[in-house]
Amino acid sequence: MKKFFSRFQGSFYMFVESVRMSVNNIMQNKLRSFLTILGILIGVAAVIALITTISGVSNSISDSFTSMGAGTMTLTITGTELKTGLEEEDMQAIAALDHVEGVCPSITLTSTITVGDVSDSYTVSGKNDYFFVQTPDAVERGRNFSRIDTDSQNRVCLISAGLVNSHFYGVDPLGRTLYLDNRDFTVVGVLSEDDDLSLSTLFTGAPDVYIPYSTALKLSGLTSVNSLTLYIDDIESADIVEAELEVLLDPLFNYEDDVYSINSMESIGDTMEEMMGMMSMLLAGIASIALVVGGIGIMNMMLTSVTERTVEIGLKKAIGAEPGQIQLQFLIESFLLSIAGGIAGIILGLILSATLCNIMSIKFTISYGAIALGVGFSAAVGIIFGWSPARKASRLSPIDALRRM
User: Fold this and answer.
1) Hey, which bits of 88-238 come out as E strands?
2) Alpha-carbon distance 382 to 331, whole Å?
3) What span, in angstroms and rounded, lies between the C-alpha atoms of 118 and 270?
4) Where would you tag: which of 29, 50, 88, 139 has the fewest CB atoms within 10 A of its CB?
């Protein structure tokens, strides 16, 4: 036991001495060491900054998707020659499905709006009263649609703040008349400027005018609805609702393929996260090239150091130093250079990431996985690229080395 403890103590002292000598050699060549560390620093900083920033962007997008339409599904109908869309009874059947709280048909038109002598084209969306039950903050002033407006095909409308500024500047629009394709409509409400996008308007943008969907059908000459938003009582039940929806729709469209599509905010969010993850890996891979370049710089410095310290290595071997001890010293030196660059790179990368997140107004979150990757990668670079010079130093012949004195 005493012999084992003595051997362990000797190995520990040898290791400490190797570290001390490695640090001394690095400090004696400050400029060369700094330039060597710089390559690792840039590589790690790039990896940390990219991964952390993309993670913040991904989380921000995910939160936005959730706030826009958590618990909603959108059904889009392309239809067949016999059945082009959903009738009223079809929508009632869908609304009666388990876990479906309600449905909202959506019809989008481009209409000419005339107020006084001013006419222009605007986007008009047909909705039902349940849409405003789910988006109570959509209307800033006035009232929402009622069931009577939908059932009676009333010519009432809600207009955006932008349309108010362009056509009713300085005038209260509530109760006033505007013309959609030469049909008079009464303004009953003004939409909020801060109205968030929903799943149904994610790719088309928010409309300028809302009218009852039944009125939109009549205005456009359509007899069926091709887009329907389902409001689900439980996000976890989305798969169940989708399966029940397929069972209901397949016989309506004679089991033909590609006649409808079902999308949910959760599925879109998952796809977006997957794409962001792939982009993160791609950019991290590109940034890692800088780490490889930094590793080559370490190898070059260590090979130069071996050449410069040939006599020192010869003397150590002459007084009994083993090849493993020589190799360990050079490996420690390479490792210290690399890990110093890695730590500095992590600090710089986090600062860059925090700055980018602040500029893009997204939440900055430290990615501990990225930090672990940076530390691990820099340590691995130091060992891998330092191994060859260390091995070369350990295999030097003491006689050949001493001849250079």
Assistant:
1) 100-105, 107-115, 118-127, 139-142, 156-159, 177-180, 183-191, 209-212, 227-232
2) 8
3) 45
4) 88
Extended strands (E) in 233-279: 260-264
Distances (CA, A) of 153 to 12, 215, 219, 291: 89, 5, 10, 67
Beta pairing, strands 209-212 & 227-232: unpaired
Secondary structure percentages of the chain, helix, strand, coil, to 5: 60, 15, 25
Is the Cα dihedral 265, 268, 271, 277 positive or negative? negative
Residue whose entry in the numeric block shows the structure tokens 């997008």 = 61
Contact 186/157 with Cβ under 8 angstroms?
yes
Higher pLDDT, 253 or 265: 253
User: Would you tell me the crossing angle of helices 310-318 and 265-308 to the nearest 10 degrees?
Assistant: 70
Buried-exposed string 231-268: b where 16+ CB fall within 10 A, e elsewhere: bbeeeeebeebbebbeeebeebbeeeeebbebbbbbeb
Cα–Cα distance measured from residue 348 to residue 14, given in angstroms and rounded to the nearest whole number: 34
CA angle, residues 114, 118, 123, in degrees to nearest 5 = 50
Quick: pLDDT tens for 260-279: 988 876 666 667 667 777 77
Across 195-223, b (16+ Cβ under 10 Å) vs e yields beebbbbbeeebbbbbbbbbbbbbbeeee
Which amino acid makes up residue 334? Answer: S
Using CA atoms, how far apart are residues 204 and 132, in angstroms rounded to an integer?
A: 19
Alpha carbons 271 and 256: distance in angstroms, whole number:
26
Who contacts 9 (Cβ-Cβ below 8 Å, separation ≥6)? Answer: none
CA 116, distance to chain mean position in Å, is 47
pLDDT score of 155 more than 80 = yes
Question: What one-letter code names the amino acid at 8?
Answer: F
Measured distance CA(232)–CA(75) in Å, rounded = 13
CB contact set of 227 (below 8 Å; sequence gap of 6+): 74, 75, 76, 77, 105, 106, 107, 108, 200
**Which structure tokens are listed for 44?**
């790690």
pTM of the model: 0.56
3-state SS assignment for residue 70: coil
pLDDT tens-digit series, residues 110-119: 889 998 888 8
